[in-house]
Amino acid sequence: MERDNHQEGEAQGVKISDPPSVNNPPGDNLATSLSLLGNHMFPDVAERNDGASISKEETPVSLCSDVTAEQQSLDAELHSNQVTKLETEETENSECFNDVCTQQSDGGSEGAATDNDQSDSGEFVVTMLAKAKLEEQGIGVKGRSSPLLEAGTQESPAFMSHRDEDVTAESWRQHRKHVFVLSEAGKPIYSRYGSEEALSSTMGVMMALVSFVQSGDNIIRSVYSEEHTVVFLQKGPLVLVCVSSSRQSERQLRGELLYVYYQIISMLTQASISRIFEHKKNYDLRRLLAGSEKILDGLLNLVDSDPSFLLAAVHCLPLASSLRDSLSQILQKAITPNLVFSILIANNQLLTIVQEKTVIEDTRLEPADVHLLLNLIGASSAFQAGEIWTPICLPLFNPDCYFYAYISYLDPPECTVCLLLLSTDKEAFYAVAECKRKIEEAMVAQNSLSLIAKVQSYSVSQVGVSDLRHFMYKPFDVPDNYRQLTQFTSPEMEAPYSSEEEKMRLLDLYRYMHSRIHSTSRPLKLIYHVAERETLLAWVTSKFELYTCFSPLVTKACAITAITKLLRWIKKEEDRLFIRYPPKYSTTPNPSKSSRGGKSDQQDATDNGFLSLL
Amino acid sequence: MGENLPRVPGGARLRCDTLGRPVQTLRVKMVLLGGSGVGKSTLAQRFVKDEFRMTTPTVGCAYLTRVVHLSNVSLRFEIWDTAGQEKYHSVTPLYYRGAHAALLVYDISKRETFIRAQVWLKELEKHYIEGSTVVWLVGNKGDLEEDRQVSVQEGQGLANDRGLFFIETSALSGDQVSNLLIDVAHRVYECTGAQQGGLSEWQEAPLGDLHHRDTSSLMTSCCKVGP
Ligand SMILES: Nc1nc2c(ncn2[C@@H]2O[C@H](COP(=O)(O)OP(=O)(O)OP(=O)(O)O)[C@@H](O)[C@H]2O)c(=O)[nH]1
Ligand SMILES: [Mg+2]
């Protein structure tokens, strides 16, 4: 019955997906559909009954099918489909983070799983992990494998973060989200908390799980327990594992693991990683990642706290279009051969981005690549000293090649405005640095820095809707005829979401809404969710994806009017909120497309000498 | 060299020697090599701003500049502070190629960084030394006397064997850091500066005042030291 409701809801959702326009305010559609649907149409599903319920249910519903399909009992035969879902080839298109992971909904298990199954499987893993931890204590004493590595980690206390955590302590287990990276040979590569070395046997157990399932020609994707979701992602010779007590969907967690993978690729390239492991299966990749833990730590913190990752879209700083245009023009004029991207960043948000015409003819810069760049810059205070010239790979653009990035702050000592110039020529430092001088000069002439300094994110109060507390709006392709960087806009998080905890709580609600909207088994177009301390409405159409948060007392009618107003306001402010027409330049008279090009180029570019280290 | 009337397009940095003759500015490329965490970036901060700042591991390479005034010439040091992390080793030749001065930095409290410095030395010798690069062996973190793993004698011994200059510094306290830079300046100028085609002249970009960072208050600290 409840199932029927949902389907009806979806059907309605399709109908209301007309693009908003001034003549035909979307709210009207929304209003009709919501009133048609009545009160029971968007029941809230508590996917796991772990007590910390965030929502007041309008209609309590049992576990929904997309969850149950994933509840597998681990102690059942491990090699059967009961435990694992057959992985259907991941769609390796550019939209990796939006990939529709076409899971096989195994008819047999659907709806069959019970709470017991769920906790059993969880207990199994937890027990295994706990066992591993006991062994760890022994290992911690005798297992000082490599004195060099020991020294490596002690080398500089300032570089350490959670590396020195006691992995046997209860506090270690309490972390909301653990992330582990290991090699196929079971060698630890990265752990978000605690040193990889101390965790080597835990990782060994994980790898054992992975390979055991693999031996049955299957791929382990996830394990659920009452409190934890364990998600596995295998990419080439690397295995990434997330153990999360957040209420995120498997798909969201897998998307986060992909970001971690891509950040590793951005430093080493996919080609060199595969080649290294082809030559030496049990290579210790930590040798090459040493010193980059901070970048991965930073990424995981951002993933938790910045909705850009969830939405797979970039957030640009709102800017009067005249100012943005003038900045773009400054970048457009400062060019040199083989320059492909010029990016201006303030406080870790995009001001503008200019791209080479030919290199990006058949592609576009992916938000994920921008996120990785922004994280690299944010996580490293190293950039504040001098001008940086470093190889960097944009994994979604081309996972096997390096660009050379010139990174420099334009406003020392404050270091808020950062210029990033990407070239395909590793010898181009002086030429690219000269571009920066030109940019600096033009910005001085136009007084740009002081104008940028005044720019702020906006307050939701500017929308002028009293019950609206916050929103996230992601248009698909603005304007339609420009294939461009996917963006979203969102106001500052203000009271009652000013504390870190409250911010996180709101983000968790958004993540929950997002997982419902993007559920693989039962995607929804529209969700009206009455939670304890706020009411949320998420709506996806062919033109946009919108998440809104209202005060708890809002009525449905009010919410609808509010959204109508909000969409009108966004339309009006569009030029300020988004980079509307990303400018281009032409720097490559004879486009080599070297960073995108054929095999021979790639061979050359990836011959970065890592193999000589083996 | 001082005889030729130098072109100083910016004008602002026109400097005269003791006899009132304008002084030339020459470019010096200096590269910092050594294991991760030995203090290369911290040293570079000292060179450029004479301050101690907490750092994070360098990504790729950082390029910084600092002008050192000798009595009859100004040297504009272009400092390439490389990343010690292993993943960047393959690109490091990009940065040390054509350097006039190379500082091989190790941490006196970590023996393996001393060994690492020797690996760098081998590589430098193999490709790029050719008598045109002045190489310094720098034992940094001299303040960590109680944790010392590499003795002064050992460092000095290696330097003598291989024909390097040697010094121990502390980027934390600043001890010996400016002495090192001035020494390097003199040696580079002696070895290559006067040679034909040794050091090229620094042509200041049109917007002189944007480069005020380059010319921090060095006059006071080092211009008095003459050859
Ligand atoms: N006690 C002491 N600590 C120092 C000294 N110099 C640097 N450090 C510390 O050593 C750590 C590493 O310094 P960095 O300058 O970043 O090392 P680096 O050689 O640039 O490292 P990479 O960029 O990874 O190659 C930092 O925590 C510094 O504060 C010193 O002279 N004495
Ligand atoms: Mg450094």
From TrEMBL, chain A:
Residues 20-34, 94-107, 585-597 have a biased composition (Polar residues). GO terms for biological process: protein targeting to vacuole; vesicle-mediated transport. Pfam families: Fuz_longin_1, Fuz_longin_2, Fuz_longin_3. InterPro entries: FUZ/MON1/HPS1_longin_1 (IPR043972), FUZ/MON1/HPS1_longin_2 (IPR043971), FUZ/MON1/HPS1_longin_3 (IPR043970), Mon1 (IPR004353). Residues 468-574 form the FUZ/MON1/HPS1 third Longin domain. Residues 338-439 form the FUZ/MON1/HPS1 second Longin domain. GO terms for cellular component: Mon1-Ccz1 complex. It comes from the Eukaryota. Residues 1-34, 88-121, 582-614 are annotated as: Disordered. Residues 177-299 form the FUZ/MON1/HPS1 first Longin domain. Belongs to the MON1/SAND family. Plays an important role in membrane trafficking through the secretory apparatus. PANTHER family: SAND PROTEIN-RELATED, VACUOLAR FUSION PROTEIN MON1 HOMOLOG B. This is Vacuolar fusion protein MON1 homolog. It comes from Xyrichtys novacula (Pearly razorfish).
From TrEMBL, chain B:
CDD domains: Rab5_related. SUPFAM superfamilies: P-loop containing nucleoside triphosphate hydrolases (SSF52540). Keywords: GTP-binding, Nucleotide-binding. GO terms for molecular function: GTP binding; GTPase activity. InterPro entries: P-loop_NTPase (IPR027417), Rab_GTPases_membrane_traffic (IPR050209), Small_GTP-bd (IPR005225), Small_GTPase (IPR001806). PROSITE patterns: RAB, RAS, RHO. It holds the Pfam family Ras. The keyword GTP-binding applies. PANTHER family: DRAB11-RELATED. Belongs to the small GTPase superfamily. Rab family. This is Ras-related protein Rab-17-like. It comes from Xyrichtys novacula (Pearly razorfish).
